[in-house]
Design goal:
With about 210 residues, this protein is α/β, with parallel strands linked by helices. Helices cover about 30% and strands about 25% of the residues. The strands form 3 sheets. The protein has a 7-stranded mixed β-sheet with strand order 1-3-2-8-9-10-11, with helices on both faces. It has a two-stranded antiparallel ribbon with strand order 4-5. A two-stranded antiparallel sheet has the order 6-7.
Length: about 210
């Protein structure tokens, strides 16, 4: 069943000939507009596809349910990851986007659904920039993400995401074969200029900047 219309979303068309689409996934309480400036900073000409999370925690949109801080509803994670993968399939057809050039850029909860989708539906994303993500799940067996570029930024003093959980995520993705580029900063949970600069450098080096 098509799910494109089930997601409130924004599409900013590519501004020059490029096949790269950045899939922008906001944090808790954000919406489809939040990461558009970040997407354009990371790639000045890529198409930007930004869905809003379909789960509400109070009045705050999220991409999946949680029981408490750091305690996730894994059944809902699996459901929502499948919905996001289907949304990307539909968006590629509807908007003429290259399916194999979709790169997730997620912050916090958005980064968590990004890597859950990558692990559960490995064909859904060509690469992922995970900004202040934490370990959510590890399918058994792990999928093959052989050579898949993944950037992972985390703060060593993050009060929301313990650095050990970010490292556990990096280890899980590496065990699946992903080419993980970590950036551990001394900061907290907020996105920093250094995070953005390192993510941009990673995007350039991974071949998705053109």
């Amino acid at each position: 069943m098509p799910v494109l219309k089930e997601f409130t979303h924004q599409l900013v068309p590519a501004e020059a000939p490029t096949e790269t689409t950045l899939v922008l996934l906001h944090g808790t309480g954000g919406d489809e507009h939040d990461l558009l400036p970040l997407g354009r900073a990371l790639h000045p000409t890529a198409a930007l596809l930004s869905p809003r999370g379909r789960v509400l925690e109070g009045s705050m949109p999220r991409f999946f349910r949680r029981f408490a801080e750091g305690r996730f509803d894994l059944d809902d994670v699996r459901l929502r990851a499948g919905e996001l993968a289907a949304f990307l399939d539909d968006a590629a057809v509807t908007y003429g986007l290259t399916r194999g050039r979709m790169v997730a850029v997620g912050y916090s909860n958005g980064a968590n659904i990004a890597h859950a989708t990558l692990l559960l539906h490995p064909a859904s994303l060509a690469a992922a920039a995970l900004l202040h993500a934490q370990f959510v799940l590890a399918p058994d067996p792990l999928p093959s993400l052989a050579g898949r570029p993944v950037f992972l930024a985390a703060g060593e003093t993050d009060p929301v995401v313990p650095i050990a959980e970010a490292r556990r995520l990096a280890d899980t993705l590496a065990a699946a074969g992903a080419a993980v580029t970590p950036f551990w900063s001394p900061g907290g949970h907020a996105l920093t200029r250094e995070d953005v600069a390192h993510a941009q450098a990673w995007l350039n080096s991974s071949g998705f900047a053109s």
